[in-house]
Amino acid sequence: MPHMIPQYSHEDFVIVHKPNGDDEAIPADVCIPADYPEDTELEPITDKWFYRLSAPGYLDCTDWTGPFDTIEEAKSDLVECYDVHPETGETLPECAPPSKR
């Protein structure tokens, strides 16, 4: 069983455009504008897909990635970026170490 499992979300998000140039996608229901400096741009995103990898039972997770128009696009990007199965998080056979193939 893999440590990190894919999670997908189609809820409302906010893209936080930070002054240093870094962007962060966070679910809109946990975004608190007062937590950011005044020169931070908050861009609401609706009707799009996001994904992350998360370790069930732990706080470990990747940042949310997106937005994508379809869940298929999100799954394809996850496979391309992390070389894992889009449903289970298992390492794809072609990416596994030779001893695991």
Mean pLDDT: 91
Overall structural class, as computed from helix and strand content, comes to: alpha+beta
What proportion of the residues is helical, as a percent range?
Answer: 10-25%
Which residue ranges are poorly predicted, with pLDDT under 50 across at least 5 consecutive positions?
none
Order of helices and strands: EEEEEEH
Overall geometry:
elongated
Description:
- By secondary structure, the chain is an alpha+beta fold.
- The chain has one domain (5-100).
- The protein has one helix spanning 71-82, and strands spanning 5-9, 13-17, 23-27, 41-45, 49-54, 65-68.
- A hairpin with a 5-residue loop joins strand 2 and strand 3.
- The model has no long low-confidence stretch (mean pLDDT 91).
Describe the structure using short key phrases.
single chain, 101 residues, alpha+beta, three-stranded antiparallel sheet, 1 helix, 30% strand
Brief sketch in words of this structure:
This protein has 101 residues and is of the alpha+beta class. The protein contains 1 helix and 6 strands.
Topology record:
Blueprint: E1 5-9, E2 13-17, E3 23-27, E4 41-45, E5 49-54, E6 65-68, H1 71-82
